[in-house]
Amino acid sequence: MQQLYSFVRKEFYHVFRDSKTLLMLFGLPIAQILLFGFALTNEIKNANIVVCDYANDNVSNELITQIAHSNNFTLAKIIHTQTEIEAAFEEGDIKLVLVFPNNFAQDLYHQGEAAVQIIADASDPNTATTLTAYAQNIIRDYQQQIQRSAPQVLSIIPQVRMLYNPELKGATNFVPGLIALVMLLICVLMTSVSIVREKEMGTMEILLVSPTNPLVVIIAKALPYFFLSLLNLTIVLLMSVWLLGISINGSLLLLYFVSSIFILCALSLGLLISNIAASQQAAMLISLMGMLLPTVMFSGFMFPIENMPVPLQIVSNIVPSKWFYIIVKDIMIKGTGFAAIWKEVLILSFMTLFLLAVSFKKFKIRLS
Amino acid sequence: MPDVSLENISKTYNKGKTIALRDISFSIEKGELFGLIGPDGAGKTSLFRILTTLLLPDAGKATVNGYDVVQQYREIRKRVGYMPGKFSLYQDLSVEENLNFFATVFNTTVKENYNLIQDIYVQIAPFKNRPAGKLSGGMKQKLALCCALIHRPEVLFLDEPTTGVDTVSRKDFWQMLQKLKAEGITILVSTPYMDEASLCERIALIQNGSIMSIDTPQQIIQMYPDPLFAIRAENMSTLLADLRQLQLLKSVYSFGDYHHITFVQNQENSPQELVQQLAQAQHLQLEIKPITPGIEDCFIYLMTQQNESQRNGN
Known about the structure:
The complex is a heterodimer of chains A (368) and B (314).
Chain A: H1 2-17, H2 19-40, E1 47-53, H3 58-69, E2 73-79, H4 83-90, E3 94-100, H5 104-111, E4 113-121, H6 125-148, E5 155-163, H7 175-201, H8 203-208, H9 214-242, H10 252-276, H11 280-298, H12 310-316, H13 320-334, H14 338-362
Parallel strand pairs in A: 1-2, 1-3, 4-5
Antiparallel strand pairs in A: 3-4
Chain B: E1 4-13, E2 18-28, E3 33-37, H1 44-51, E4 59-64, E5 67-68, H2 73-79, E6 80-83, H3 95-105, H4 114-124, H5 137-149, E7 155-158, H6 167-182, E8 186-191, E9 202-207, E10 210-215, H7 217-222, E11 228-232, H8 236-245, E12 249-255, E13 258-263, H9 270-278, E14 287-291, H10 295-313
Parallel strand pairs in B: 3-8, 3-9, 6-7, 7-8
Antiparallel strand pairs in B: 1-2, 1-4, 4-5, 9-10, 11-13, 11-14, 12-13
Helix pairs in contact in B: 3-5, 4-5
């Protein structure tokens, strides 16, 4: 026990005395969540829009002014013919076009309803949906304003059209995928590199030629990264909640429990890699290539697994991050409990046990 | 019973393509200071790794402290101290942290065996808070030795402990080894420096994975067959070239300040004859004197013998 404690303390010294390791450990997740988070962020400021105003009456003008004054939009120009819309989008920069039909005010006050068309550039689906939502909000607010001074029921009906990508395919929620990616990368990379470093430095020789049980060496390597990974998870979750405004709907305890299993899984993968790799660079390369690619490809967070050819769908089943991704998504977004995800948790646990057993078995008690 | 024994140990790498050790047998008695002398690539480190249970031999049997290096490796790992050739402590941990860490690795405390390392540790104690990576070469070796001794091992394996260490520290280091020997610790030390050979009780000269000779340094020197002369002149390189032309010399080797030479026929007037033959070249300050051979002379002699016998064998 004394031995293990001493080992673990030593590992922490290594981590906290090497600025590069620290940067990797905490900088990488933070950078990633900021990068991905930017794509995710639901606030867009000063998006350029164009208004095509056939009506040019007091109601359309008032609505245009309100939209132009909102923080989210900047009115680039007002046009008066349909043909200019396409041209405006093709110039780039224009994210949204609002079309007010002829007799807008007249329709609204005499028939009680009028339509306004919202055309969005959906080649970037996240931006498009966000911006149309903003526009709809402003229109709804305006409708409530004028309703107060009007005797009859007034409704302005927004008709949304997604240009270029009407199905809005794309990532809606990166965070669960990001958690899987960060946990896996950090754990695998850190453990494999730190063990290979001992080999490279020659300290592994001394540790082997000592009464210390190799199991103690392995556990001592894994423990610090286990806890640092949980800390990392906390940082990612806090950033998701505060910075990206994502809410965690399920049980936090369950989330941490499943993450712990996944971290163990990643640690044993790192241990396995450290057995193959001869240098720190090799360990880093294998970790990045061997872990990043399958996670991005097969976990379902970038590319939907259902759309893949059947052989690839089968392959995706052996990628632990796929199962972890499903679990985290269910817990965080759907808010489901253990009852709904026990199957996935079981699969992940078996994978972890298997990898852990193999990596313990494969750990070399001699050189080469 | 010898403390370390090797019987017909062989080791190859790359699936037999590279031969590291050929049929090595020798033994070391309890409390002996035994030197393994040979140049880089002779097989010293492979031998150390087999004895410290880090590598498995291809053939042969070896025991350390009575335990088999293959089957009973766990027992050996409890009882030996090992200092690898490369500085192998944690560079980012301080001197004190390294020492404490290795003490716990060996299930002991610094206090318990402090008297054994005291003499060495007091020299590095002023730097105890400095990261090990920032120590000088000599200090690093002392720290590594402390770490290897912290559990009072029965057998101490030191793989090239003085490589990359200055002359003064090297001398210190050998004095420390003598003290450890007095404590009854069996020591196997390897070195590429021939001048350190005489500080060992017995030495094995190793070259190309084979042991050429095992004996006390004095015995090895005595078996040198020919009278040896040292010769010098102002221009050493032209002298060397001239000497190599001469038929009456058996061997010519450059040794820094002097060239060491032996004659084909050892007659009393051989040196004078040599001086006469060199007269035409007009060497300034020509000086020739008989000397007693060193370990390096013996090593070179044995090496040429080995090469010749191999050539004849083929």
